[in-house]
């Protein structure tokens, strides 16, 4: 009788815990202070609570992280003068096992992206001004770079800041050269060739940093670090046509600020961007037909220097990595208006990348 009662209690406890909707959140950091590498939280997708903090991999300056499409592997840049890229296997307990590390072929790599088939990676080297392409083996290991694009020119210094694959295209945001480069995959499916050094005309010294595209590839939104704007463009006759440049800041803001990250909501009705200095997340309502934006909110991030941010898998929460105040802020997303409301924050040294 006692054994049966214990079994019932344990089963009830298990069902209670198993019913809690959790998602893993991996956090990339700078390790010049107290941080030691990549951390992991459990995120409750009903309450927005972050719990069970763990150091899952000791590695230097993992400032940007990316999943493989099957989510069995994580890839991290090591943002140093002698830049490198590291591959990790995700263990069943969520810890990361180091697979290998290769040269990034440029100083201070700051972004990595994986293609949809999981066999190719692209790394942006900020100080080096280079963009490196890698083959990925079926066991998750990275090969040495098979192609390195040097964006530097005699009269201008490149600062490659982010890159993404989209079907047979590769787009590269170059903050230093003030353009969004467009590469086309070659017929042999191995190389990429430059089509144009800027898909649209940017304003002078705008500083394109990160960008996001609609799922159908018809609209692109570029956040500009120096100009504190979002540049939007629409696909027309196989090329992009400029729509508008829209400020990310409050109309009455007078201080210095530098944009960082940008994301579309899951339904693509809203666009979010981070302002470092004003220390806000800007919220835009998006017209899905025209692609144009209406600024509806600048939400205080409850921290300092919001570098990277992420929407959780449910789309109901937005989390912000505040680099200088050493905290991650959690916001509730209103599904109807797109606006944010602050819930709480947790402390973590130098968080700069959030990966769900």
Characterise the protein shown here.
The chain is globular. The chain contains 1 helix and 28 strands. The N and C termini lie far apart (45 Å). The strands form 7 sheets. A 4-stranded antiparallel beta sheet has the order 3-2-1-28, with no helix packed on it. It has a 4-stranded antiparallel beta sheet with strand order 4-5-6-7, with no helix packed on it. Strands 8-9-10-11 form a 4-stranded antiparallel beta sheet, with no helix packed on it. The chain has a domain of 189 residues: 7 Propeller (Methylamine Dehydrogenase, Chain H), CATH 2.130.10. It is mainly beta and 356 residues long. A hairpin with a 4-residue loop joins strand 13 and strand 14. This is Lactonase family protein. InterPro entries: Cycloisomerase_2, Haem_d1_sf, Lactonase_7-beta_prop, WD40/YVTN_repeat-like_dom_sf. One of its GO terms (biological process) is glucose metabolic process. Belongs to the cycloisomerase 2 family. GO terms for molecular function: 6-phosphogluconolactonase activity.
The first-to-last residue Cα distance is 45 Å
Question: Do you know the CATH topology of one domain?
Answer: Methylamine Dehydrogenase, Chain H
Number of helical regions: 1
Q: What is the ordering of alpha helices and beta strands?
A: HEEEEEEEEEEEEEEEEEEEEEEEEEEEE
The count of strands amounts to 28
User: In CATH, what is the class of one domain?
Assistant: Mainly Beta
The helix/strand class is: mainly beta
Low-confidence stretches: 1-17
Helicity range of the residues? under 10%
CATH architectural label of one domain: 7 Propeller
Question: Which strand order does the major sheet show?
Answer: 3-2-1-28
**Rg computed from alpha carbons, rounded to a whole number of angstroms:** 21 Å
Q: Can you tell me the overall shape?
A: globular
Main sheet summary:
4 strands, antiparallel
**Mean pLDDT level:** 95
């Amino acid at each position: 009788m006692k054994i049966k009662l214990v079994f019932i209690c344990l089963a009830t406890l298990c069902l209670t815990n198993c019913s809690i909707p959790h998602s893993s959140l991996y956090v990339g950091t700078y390790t010049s202070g107290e941080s030691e590498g990549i951390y992991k939280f459990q995120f409750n997708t009903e309450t927005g609570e972050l719990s069970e903090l763990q150091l899952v991999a000791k590695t230097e300056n993992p400032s940007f992280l990316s999943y493989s499409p099957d989510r069995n592997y994580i890839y991290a840049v090591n943002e140093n003068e002698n830049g490198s890229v590291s591959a990790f296997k995700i263990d069943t307990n969520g810890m990361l096992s180091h697979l290998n590390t290769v040269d990034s072929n440029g100083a201070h790599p700051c972004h990595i992206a994986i293609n949809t088939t999981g066999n190719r990676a692209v790394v942006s080297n900020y100080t080096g001004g280079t963009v490196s392409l890698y083959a990925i083996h079926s066991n998750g290991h990275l090969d040495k770079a098979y192609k390195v694009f040097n964006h530097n020119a005699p009269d201008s210094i490149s600062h490659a800041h982010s890159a993404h694959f989209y079907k047979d295209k590769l787009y590269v945001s170059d903050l230093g050269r003030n353009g969004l480069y467009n590469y086309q995959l070659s017929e042999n499916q191995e190389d990429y060739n430059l089509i144009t050094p800027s898909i649209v005309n940017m304003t002078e010294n705008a500083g394109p940093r990160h960008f996001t595209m609609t799922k159908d590839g018809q609209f692109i939104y570029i956040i500009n670090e120096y100009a504190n704007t979002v540049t939007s463009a629409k696909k027309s006759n196989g090329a992009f046509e400029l729509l508008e440049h829209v400020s990310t800041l409050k109309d009455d803001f007078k201080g210095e600020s530098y944009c960082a990250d940008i994301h579309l909501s899951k339904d693509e009705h809203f666009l979010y961007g981070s302002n470092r200095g004003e220390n806000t997340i800007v919220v835009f309502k998006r017209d899905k037909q025209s692609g144009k934006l209406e600024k509806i909110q600048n939400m205080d991030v409850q921290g300092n220097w919001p570098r990277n941010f992420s929407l959780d898998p449910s789309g109901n929460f937005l989390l912000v990595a505040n680099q200088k105040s050493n905290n991650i802020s959690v916001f509730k997303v209103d599904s109807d208006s797109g606006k944010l409301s602050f819930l709480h924050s947790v402390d973590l040294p130098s968080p700069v990348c959030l990966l769900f």
